[in-house]
Write a structure and sequence with these properties.
Blueprint lengths: L7 E3 L2 E3 L16 H19 L4 H20 L11 E6 L5 H12 L7 E6 L10 E5 L6 H8 L5 E5 L4
Parallel strand pairs: 3-4, 3-5, 5-6
Antiparallel strand pairs: 1-2
Amino acid sequence: MIYYIRCVKINSVIFKVFILLFSVILTSNISAQEKIKDRISFIHNSIVNRTGITAASRTHAKKQALFIHNFIMNIQWKNYAQLDTFTIAVLGDTTGLVLYELSIVAQEKKARDLPIKVKSLTNIDDISDVQLLYFDKSSNLKLENVYKAIGDSAILMVTQGYPY
């Protein structure tokens, strides 16, 4: 199996982690998925530890991801019956921690009975097929532009650092 990890932008410095090949040897009792998860966690922790991101900020991102999952479990989307996957889009998040923690939640939990897909956006215009949009102040988005991009779609907007 071959797995890829995208570029991670941390503290305005871009660490390019291109095409990491994971050759999974299935000789131990640990499943292939667990081996991959452990290797990705190790690489992520190595990058995070070198950039001075604190354990507190990592814990905060984990809480945000779990809080977002609680939103998913307690809100009903009008088009839920037509979905085969629940998609969360992340825009901004300069540390990459919220995206990372949401990816962990997506592996471990479901949106009721649907699998969760997490994707990173670089532009608000790429918002198609999304049920939840998370963005923070670092995205420099104007709320008017976000409302325009969402239109009448059934997208829940979750923000960090914006006034009510």
